[in-house]
Design brief:
By secondary structure, this protein is α/β, with parallel strands linked by helices. The protein has helices at residues 7-10, 16-27, 43-54, 67-81, 96-108, 124-131, 150-156, 179-191, 231-234, 249-262, 268-282, 286-307, 333-344, 373-388; strands at 30-31, 91-95, 114-119, 135-140, 161-167, 195-199, 225-230, 242-246, 320-324, 346-347, 364-368. The structure holds 4'-deoxy-4'-aminopyridoxal-5'-phosphate and glutamine. Glutamine binds next to loops.
Length: 390
């Protein structure tokens, strides 16, 4: 008997997020690495989930998700973006955005199919594309403004391109794609008959007057887009793993075909809780308050990084800021982040983990500011030592 892992898995490292959180815990560092809120989500959501458990809503949900949650998702995208979706045929509840992404890849790709992905990219993407037998084709977002070269993007499309994966707002850069950029992508999708898969988990976290535009709302894109989102970020409950995919019926059938044999269905009481949360948010200024809270946390983090002499790269979305550590005498971002962790007592993520070839990554560090003000103040106090050590 051989107990070795498959080649598929053996070629993958350990995700940087788990590693960083583990080391931060061991070393007592302030953990601004892995992206998750320190604060808890709304009480109304928690109460509704507890009630659902007590009401014995503890058996399998329908594979596509409970009707009330699908309705709340449809109403939410309608209210926010004017995007209409049919609750029966166009919405699927998944176990986090992560499962929606995997189900999309497994549902769409045949071996050898290519997926164009903006680099740096969320680390799960290439793994999931390879699980489905596909090939990741990276297109660079370039520092300092995270723009891309339209010719490089056009050149990345080939006969084998099945999909383009967009993270908007983008992790780890915080980029919010402009209407012009989205239309350029949309044109390429239509010319090459390609599906857009858009990961919009940070759609409510935009700043400085930036506007999030779902690519599904751009001309010609409604029926060739899979819009993926998650309640983890919007309701500050990343551990619940309630995500979803919105797509035209044929694409939804492909997603559901995979989803039924990945998880079959997603946790029933947590769906009930999120349905209540989304319904309540439709009737209140919940999302505005969330954005206001994040704006003030972002300001605290900005002050700390600037105070430490770390220039911040432009970012209009997400709950991350990237700081420029070039010129500080570190060989790469990993050694800079290890220095931060061990000597300064702050954990950050080295974004080279988001590059196909990490040696080509700029020397940056990603800081998550989804933390209590006191936690950020403490991180800032510690980061102050960086200035002294310059
Ligand atoms: N996509 C992006 C861009 C993310 O940053 C994350 C997690 N932070 C996810 C997907 C995963 O979402 P979920 O926890 O809902 O699976
Ligand atoms: N998406 C989160 C981040 O970018 C982490 C999620 C995870 O740990 N898988 O930090």
């Amino acid at each position: 008997m051989s107990t070795r892992a498959s080649q598929r898995v053996a070629s993958l490292g350990t995700t940087v997020f788990g590693e960083m959180s583990r080391m931060a815990g061991e070393l007592g560092a302030v953990n601004l690495g892995q992206g998750f809120p320190e604060f808890s989500g709304p009480d109304v959501v928690k109460t509704a989930a507890k009630q659902a458990i007590d009401d014995n809503k503890n058996q399998y949900a329908p594979p596509q998700g409970i009707p009330r949650l699908r309705q709340a998702i449809a109403d939410t995208y309608q209210q926010a973006y004017g995007l209409e979706a049919d609750v029966e045929q166009e919405i699927t509840v998944t176990t986090g955005a992560t499962e929606a992404l995997l189900a999309s890849m497994l549902g769409l790709l045949d071996p050898g199919d290519e997926v164009v992905v903006f680099e740096p990219f969320y680390d799960a993407y290439p793994a999931q594309i390879s699980f489905a037998g596909g090939k990741t084709v990276p297109v660079r977002l370039n520092t300092p403004d995270w723009s891309f070269d339209p010719d490089e993007l056009a050149g990345a499309f080939s006969e084998r391109t099945r999909a383009i994966l967009i993270t908007n707002p983008h992790n780890p850069t915080g980029k919010v794609f402009t209407e012009e950029e989205l239309d350029l992508i949309a044109d390429l999708c239509q010319t090459h008959d390609v599906v857009a898969i858009t990961d919009e988990v940070y759609d409510r976290l935009v700043y400085d007057g930036a506007v999030h535009i779902p690519i599904a709302t751009r001309p010609g894109m409604r029926n060739r887009t899979i819009t993926i989102n998650s309640t983890g970020k919007t309701f500050s409950m990343t551990g619940w793993k309630i995500g979803y995919a919105i797509a035209a019926p044929e694409l939804t059938a492909a997603i559901r075909g995979a989803h039924q044999f990945i998880t079959f269905a997603t946790s029933t009481p947590f769906q009930e809780g999120m349905a209540t949360g989304m319904e309540a948010a439709l009737e209140s200024d919940y999302y505005d308050q969330l954005a206001a809270r994040y704006t003030s946390l972002r300001n605290i983090m900005k002050q700390g990084l600037e105070g430490a002499g770390l220039p911040i790269l432009p970012a209009e979305g997400s709950f991350f800021l990237l700081a420029d550590a070039a010129g500080r005498g570190f060989e790469d971002d990993v050694s800079f982040c290890m220095h931060l962790l061990r000597e300064i007592g702050v954990a950050a993520i080295p974004p080279s983990a988001f590059y196909a070839d990490p040696s080509t990554a700029p020397i940056l560090a990603r800081f998550c500011f989804a933390k209590e003000p006191a936690t950020l103040e403490e991180a800032n106090r510690r980061l102050g030592a960086l200035r002294a050590s310059r």
